[in-house]
């Protein structure tokens, strides 16, 4: 069995957030205590690159061990600034949700950026989600939109490549709570092209009510569900949208993020802290594996799952060496992985809207395996497999990471 503990100090997941807090000691200490180790420096408290408040924010990030992502304020003109004196600057986010017809302009900034930053920081752009209109995308489909970005921008980068998107799946419609049906397809498309172009994946998850008519406050289970579904598609990093509560017309005065507009904790803070800390307790294990694909499993209590139906490249059991059968009463999503020594790993997540309060009872059958390392709540346990079978019960929103092996 691979010794994953040797990577504990080196393989650490970046868990970030959009919109930084006020540049005070207390605010950055509070953010660090929430389990955030990365922040996109933007919003009313810091502005974007070149703002006179930036040095204070960067210095506080360094003090509290928080990595910084410089934001460019969606300016495509060649005016990037040199922040290489700050060791915690890991990325420069040039644009949030560009149109496809802006990709050539983005690509034209790469030579200057790499001349300043080399491999010290990555050239980042955050792409639209799948529910953006064709007019917003300036492309015939979401797949084409992502493909063009990879061809025109990502392929031109000499150093670390990052493919990032935002998608907010917690929906409210006609008095009903539901999950966005194209959520999984969105993640699949990003993961597919990231694998083709050897890029790392990053996603913004929904950590506040989003939309003028959607006052659903994400619960701890909602945050956990989004994280583990992202992990099922091999995402290497997640960020919360948002940390500091926005005040734009897009959000009402009653909607709030992890901290409110005065920088005080909201009810989401403790939920985010618990999920962040859970992730950071087993991230070195998860990050030791390479993503292979996903297997959707329709529960025996259900006749169909529209989100599963949208997937185009789902794996079959013949694509894995160990897992050959899964039975479950409720829908589960399985992410398939392999480490450097050929051991397989599986993210298994209860794929149901947490508002339905459904528990999934699943049984996974493995070829030639007698034990499994199971990471639940981020903590490792060793489970004996009777006849190669692992029985698990997953609470709403819960995910686990399973590594089967022969003793």
Could you please describe the fold and organization of this structure?
The structure is a single chain. The chain is an alpha/beta fold. The strands form four sheets. The protein has an eight-stranded parallel β-sheet. Strand 9, helix 8 and strand 10 form a beta-alpha-beta unit. Helix 6 runs parallel beside helix 7 and helix 8 runs parallel beside helix 9. The model has no long low-confidence stretch (mean pLDDT 96).
Number of strands: 19
Question: Low-confidence runs (pLDDT<50, min 5 residues)?
Answer: none
Q: Main beta sheet, described? A: 8 strands, parallel
Shape: globular
Secondary structure elements and pairings:
Elements: E1 15-17, H1 25-33, E2 38-41, H2 54-63, E3 67-71, E4 89-96, H3 103-108, H4 110-117, E5 122-127, H5 134-137, H6 142-152, E6 162-166, E7 170-173, E8 176-179, H7 183-196, E9 200-206, H8 220-232, E10 237-241, H9 267-286, E11 289-297, H10 306-310, E12 323-328, E13 332-339, E14 344-350, E15 360-366, E16 371-376, E17 379-384, E18 389-394, E19 399-405
Parallel strand pairs: 1-10, 2-3, 3-4, 4-5, 5-6, 6-9, 9-10
Antiparallel strand pairs: 7-8, 11-13, 12-15, 13-14, 14-19, 15-18, 16-17, 16-19
């Amino acid at each position: 069995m691979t010794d994953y503990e040797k990577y504990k100090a080196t393989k650490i997941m970046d868990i970030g957030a959009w919109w930084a807090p006020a540049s005070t000691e207390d605010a950055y200490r509070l953010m660090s205590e929430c389990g955030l180790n990365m922040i996109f420096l933007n919003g009313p408290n810091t502005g974007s690159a070149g703002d006179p408040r930036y040095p204070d924010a960067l210095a506080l990030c360094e003090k509290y061990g928080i990595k910084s992502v410089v934001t460019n304020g969606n300016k495509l003109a060649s005016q990037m600034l040199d922040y290489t004196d700050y060791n915690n600057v890991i990325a420069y986010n040039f644009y949030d949700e560009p149109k496809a017809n802006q990709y050539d302009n983005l690509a034209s900034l790469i030579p200057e950026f790499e001349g300043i930053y080399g491999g010290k920081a990555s050239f980042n752009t955050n792409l639209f989600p799948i529910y953006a209109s064709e007019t917003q995308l300036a492309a015939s489909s979401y797949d084409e939109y992502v493909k063009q970005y990879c061809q025109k921008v990502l392929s031109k980068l000499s150093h670390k490549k990052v493919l990032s998107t935002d998608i907010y799946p917690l929906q409210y419609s006609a008095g009903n709570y539901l999950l966005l049906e194209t959520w999984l397809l969105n993640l699949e498309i990003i993961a597919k092209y990231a694998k083709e172009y050897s890029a790392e994946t990053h996603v913004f998850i929904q950590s506040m009510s989003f939309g003028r008519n959607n006052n659903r406050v994400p619960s701890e289970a909602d945050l956990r569900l989004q994280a583990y579904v992202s992990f099922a598609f091999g995402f290497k990093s997640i960020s919360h949208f948002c940390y500091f509560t926005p005040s734009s017309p897009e959000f009402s005065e009653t909607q709030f993020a992890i901290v409110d507009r005065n920088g005080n904790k909201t009810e989401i803070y403790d939920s985010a802290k618990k999920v962040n800390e859970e992730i950071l307790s087993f991230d070195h294990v998860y990050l030791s594996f390479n993503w292979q694909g996903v297997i959707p499993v329709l529960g025996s209590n259900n006749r169909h799952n529209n989100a599963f139906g949208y997937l185009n490249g789902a794996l079959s059991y013949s694509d894995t060496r160990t897992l050959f059968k899964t039975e479950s009463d409720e829908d589960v999503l399985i992410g398939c992985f392999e480490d450097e020594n050929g051991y397989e790993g599986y993210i298994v997540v209860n794929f149901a809207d947490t508002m339905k309060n459904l528990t999934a009872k699943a049984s996974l059958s493995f070829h030639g395996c007698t034990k499994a390392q199971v990471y639940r709540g981020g903590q490792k346990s060793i489970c004996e497999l009777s006849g190669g079978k692992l029985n698990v019960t997953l609470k709403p929103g819960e995910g686990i990471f399973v590594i089967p092996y022969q003793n």
